[in-house]
Amino acid sequence: MPVIEGTTRLKEASGEYDFAVDGGAISTITLRSAGGAASLGGNIPNGSVILEGYIEVDTAVTSGGAATIGINSEAAGDLLAPITVAGAPWSTTGRKSNIPASTGVTTVKTTAARNLAITVAAFALTAGKFRVVVFYR
Predict the structure, then answer these.
(1) For residue range 41-79, what is the model confidence (pLDDT) as tens digits?
(2) Would the N or C end of the chain have less CB density within 10 A of its end CB?
(3) Under 8 Å between Cβ of 121 and 68
(4) 101, 15, 60, 98: CA torsion to nearest 10
């Protein structure tokens, strides 16, 4: 595994989606830094292993139909498989789990520097705001 310069301790990456800022078109949307900055969120170095994380839904996500959202880092849906916005975790506010759960089979290893992103499919989104937070080594 490549060495991540500077430290071996657990690190955090986060990104934010806000319909009012990012729109909701059917596409892959790179999440912004959760602090509100215009820079891309969650710059995760090459060779990192994403161990766990969560989603914090501030405003429930809605669409004009059965839209799905998946959360990506290394590959489509590797942090959360595409799920319709009419159900959990998108339809209610609060903190929700994602796929990596600090077990070998659920961790995600990056093969290049990556940013957190979502993939919107089937229908465009019409509202919603949430943050994705992951912890990696």
Answers:
(1) 568 999 999 999 999 999 999 999 999 999 999 999 999
(2) N
(3) yes
(4) -10
Q: How far apart are CA 27 and CA 85, in angstroms?
A: 15
For residue range 77-88, list pLDDT tens digits in order. Answer: 999 999 999 999
The model carries a pTM of 0.88
Q: Provide the 10 A C-beta neighbour count for residue 130.
A: 25
Tell me how long the chain is: 137
Q: In angstroms, what is the C-alpha Rg of the chain?
A: 14
CA distances from 7 to 48, 52, 110, 113, 136 (A): 12, 18, 17, 17, 12
What does the DSSP 8-state code read for residue 116?
A: -
5 DSSP 8-state letter: T
